[in-house]
């Protein structure tokens, strides 16, 4: 049975994260993953090239050697394993899951806030503080999205939860109650 890419990403990230915490290198590995993610964003086909079994092994090895040159220790060993099992095309999923685990361990929740108009700095900071408190985190970082169709209020999405305080959703709720 073939495992889907998201599951692969979670498994590899979990293993790397647990080892990084055990070795006291959680933040170092996090920074390494961020720098690798930048490379993957600059060369979108890199993962496919390194995982394609049809390509010449020596050429892939040379490319891999160049990629891992700046890394040592745990990160180098991890990348070698991912390469050996032809999972370099899953790297971005692995990095995203590691980042989620890292942020969670640091007490940081990442999410989005949708508003009808842009928030000022004070409003955004207050909303981040309230979101962190509601979700039992120390801190929250919310990416802003503007959607005039919500009319007013806010919709916060973080940690697989949605807090919908939009005027539109309240009006829709009232409509449904009145229609009965």
UniProtKB/TrEMBL annotation:
Q: Does the keyword section mention Translocase?
A: no
Localisation per UniProt entry: Cell membrane; Membrane
User: What membrane topology does the annotation report for this chain?
Assistant: Peripheral membrane protein
Query: Where exactly are the transmembrane stretches of this chain?
Result: none
Indicate the principal place this protein occupies in or around the cell. Answer: membrane
Keywords assigned: ATP synthesis, Cell membrane, CF(1), Hydrogen ion transport, Ion transport, Membrane, Transport
Look up the coiled coil feature and give its residue ranges.
Answer: none
Q: Which InterPro entries match?
A: ATP_synth_OSCP/delta_N_sf, ATPase_OSCP/dsu
Function noted in UniProt: This protein is part of the stalk that links CF(0) to CF(1). It either transmits conformational changes from CF(0) to CF(1) or is implicated in proton conduction. F(1)F(0) ATP synthase produces ATP from ADP in the presence of a proton or sodium gradient. F-type ATPases consist of two structural domains, F(1) containing the extramembraneous catalytic core and F(0) containing the membrane proton channel, linked together by a central stalk and a peripheral stalk. During catalysis, ATP synthesis in the catalytic domain of F(1) is coupled via a rotary mechanism of the central stalk subunits to proton translocation.
Family, similarity comment: Belongs to the ATPase delta chain family.
Q: What is this protein called?
A: ATP synthase subunit delta
Q: What organism is this sequence from?
A: Enterococcus camelliae
Gene that encodes it: atpH
């Amino acid at each position: 049975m073939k495992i889907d890419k998201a599951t692969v990403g979670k498994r590899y990230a979990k293993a790397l994260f647990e080892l990084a915490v055990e070795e006291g290198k959680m933040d170092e590995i996090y920074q390494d993953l961020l720098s690798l993610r930048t490379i993957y964003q600059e060369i979108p086909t890199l993962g496919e090239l390194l995982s394609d079994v049809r390509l010449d092994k020596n050429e892939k090895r040379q490319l891999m050697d160049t990629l891992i040159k700046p890394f040592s220790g745990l990160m180098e060993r991890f990348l070698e394993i991912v390469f050996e099992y032809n999972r370099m095309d899953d790297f971005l999923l692995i990095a995203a899951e590691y980042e989620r685990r890292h942020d969670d361990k640091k007490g940081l929740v990442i999410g989005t806030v949708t508003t009808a108009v842009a928030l000022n700095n004070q409003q955004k900071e207050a909303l981040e503080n309230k979101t962190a408190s509601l979700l039992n985190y120390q801190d929250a970082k919310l990416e802003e999205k503007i959607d005039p169709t919500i009319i007013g209020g806010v919709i916060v999405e973080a940690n697989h939860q949605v807090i919908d305080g939009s005027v539109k959703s309240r009006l829709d709720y009232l409509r449904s109650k009145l229609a009965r």
